[in-house]
C-alpha cells in the first residue's frame, strides 16, 4: 500500500470545498490515515516548497499557503501518489482535464485548490513534515 500527502489549500477551505474534495478520495476507495486542519507556519511552508525556492512565484506561494487554514491529509491505497495526481488534474486549473478536482473547483495556477505529492519520495518527505508518526492511524482489519 502506498501513501501520499494531500493538502486542501486556503482557497479550498475558504470556499467550503473541503468535504467535496475529501469525498472524492473516499469514493475512490482510498483510506484517510491522517487528517488535520492547521495554519502552516512560514518556515514549514518554505521547507515544504523548498524545491521552488528562487522561482519567481516562490514568495507568493509561501504567502498564499500561510494566509489561512489548510486541511492536511495522508491517504493510503494502491498507487496513491499517481492516482491522486490524476484525480487533481494539471497544476493550472485552466489546463486541467474536465472532471478533475482542479478543473472543477479552481481557476488559477496559484490558487489551485489542492496540493498532492509528485512522487513516492516526495510523499514520504512531505508526510514527515506535516505529521508525527503517531498521528497516522492503522485501519487494521476494519471494513
Ligand atoms: P502545488 O502542487 O502545491 O506545488 C507548487 C505550487 O506552485 C503549485 O501547486 C502551484 O500552486 C504553484 N505554482 C506553480 N507554478 C506557478 C506559477 N507559474 N505561478 C504561481 N504559482 C505557481
From TrEMBL:
GO terms for cellular component: cytoplasm. ATP binds at residues 9, 57, 85, 91, 102, 112. Pfam families: NDK. InterPro entries: NDK-like_dom, NDK-like_dom_sf, Nucleoside_diP_kinase, Nucleoside_diP_kinase_AS. Its cofactor is Mg(2+). The active site is at residue 115. It comes from the Bacteria. It catalyses: a ribonucleoside 5'-diphosphate + ATP = a ribonucleoside 5'-triphosphate + ADP; dZDP + ATP = dZTP + ADP; a 2'-deoxyribonucleoside 5'-diphosphate + ATP = a 2'-deoxyribonucleoside 5'-triphosphate + ADP. Residues 1-138 form the Nucleoside diphosphate kinase-like domain. Its main location: cytoplasm. Gene3D superfamilies: Nucleoside diphosphate kinase-like domain (3.30.70.141). Belongs to the NDK family. Homotetramer. PANTHER family: NUCLEOSIDE DIPHOSPHATE KINASE. (Microbial infection) Catalyzes the phosphorylation of dZDP to dZTP, when the bacterium is infected by a phage that produces the substrate for the synthesis of dZTP (2- amino-2'-deoxyadenosine 5'-triphosphate), which is then used by the phage as a DNA polymerase substrate. This is Nucleoside diphosphate kinase.
Amino acid at each position: 500500500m502506498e501513501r501520499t500527502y494531500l493538502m486542501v489549500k486556503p482557497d479550498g477551505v475558504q470556499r467550503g470545498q473541503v468535504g467535496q474534495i475529501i469525498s472524492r478520495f473516499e469514493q475512490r476507495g482510498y483510506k484517510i490515515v491522517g487528517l488535520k486542519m492547521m495554519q502552516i507556519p512560514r518556515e514549514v511552508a518554505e521547507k515544504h516548497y523548498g524545491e521552488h525556492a528562487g522561482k519567481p512565484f516562490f514568495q507568493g506561494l509561501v504567502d498564499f499557503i500561510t494566509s489561512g487554514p489548510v486541511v492536511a491529509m495522508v491517504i493510503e491505497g494502491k498507487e496513491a501518489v499517481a492516482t491522486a495526481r490524476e484525480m487533481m488534474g494539471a497544476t493550472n486549473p485552466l489546463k486541467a482535464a474536465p472532471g478533475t478536482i482542479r478543473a472543477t473547483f479552481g481557476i488559477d495556477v496559484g490558487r489551485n485548490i489542492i496540493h498532492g505529492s509528485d512522487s513516492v519520495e516526495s510523499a514520504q518527505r512531505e508526510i514527515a513534515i506535516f505529521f508525527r508518526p503517531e498521528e497516522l492511524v492503522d485501519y487494521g482489519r476494519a471494513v
